[in-house]
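Reopening this one. Same input as before:
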Amino acid sequence: MPKEPELTQEEIEISRTRMPRGIEILGVVEMMLGGDKLRVKCYDGNTRICRIPGKLRKKVWIRVGDYVLVEPWSAQSNERADIVFRYTSTQANWLRRKNYIK
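Same output, byte for byte:
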């Protein structure tokens, strides 16, 4: 049987890049505030205080300058949000090339 071509790590990550759904917004982490809270500059023009939910707390490590996907709260939607996903550097480069982020 013919051998299937092997995919590089970059091709695997690009094919699985998570895009915003519904009310989710892309953003960049500006500052770590402590206590699992971050200040994120969102691409809709607002700066929000974002919380890292328990399911991501010990699994995903977020640093200043990372691109993240946030979901605004139903109350205080212009001030508060939850982190939904953190993009890797490869995924962020792909988003930059496709003009989703600047």
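So the earlier flakiness isn't reproducible anymore. For the record, The radius of gyration is 15 Å.
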